[in-house]
Amino acid sequence: MVKCAFQTAVRKWVRIFKGKDPRETILRYRKRSGRPLSASVTANRDKVDCKIRANRRVKQKEIANAEGISKKRVHHIVTTVLGYRKVSARWVPRQLTVEMKAQRKDMCTQLLELSTVFIFA
Q1: Tens digit of pLDDT for each residue in 63-98?
Q2: Which InterPro entries match (predicted)?
């Protein structure tokens, strides 16, 4: 014998979750019990950032095992919070820092000077 909910109960649930019932706001905004998110705290961000800066080829799994947080949370911290991405098996910042931009500018001007010397020599 298969047990199933009564049709009136199902309709009531649909009404509540679609927002056609005043109790809907109670369901949506009710505080939930459970463990608070602690994996994205600043201390963990700093630890993950230090690990990546020390070894650009470190894997997310290695960071997760060393810090005792989940791989999913490490991925979130690395990609979203810190803004890194993988390029040629290395973690690289998505945006250039001021020092990196200055270094690129200096290198480009040196290359331009060298190219003009070789062209006119």
Answers
A1: 999 999 889 999 999 988 888 888 888 888 777 778
A2: Transposase-MT_Hybrid
Q: How far apart are CA 110 and CA 120, in angstroms?
A: 16
Asked if 27 and 19 count as a contact pair (C-beta separation under 8 A), the reply is no
Structural domain boundaries in the chain: 42-120
3-state secondary structure the chain: CCCCCCHHHHHHHHHHHHCCCCCHHHHHHCCCCCCCCCCCCHHHHHHHHHHHHHCCCCCHHHHHHHHCCCHHHHHHHHHHHCCEEEECCEEEECCCCHHHHHHHHHHHHHHHHHHHHHHHC
CB atoms closer than 10 angstroms to residue 15? 13
For residue 51, give the nearest of 67, 71, 37 by alpha carbon: 67
In this prediction, the residues of the chain whose per-residue pLDDT falls under 70 are 1-3, 5, 19-40, 117-121
pTM assigned to the model: 0.49
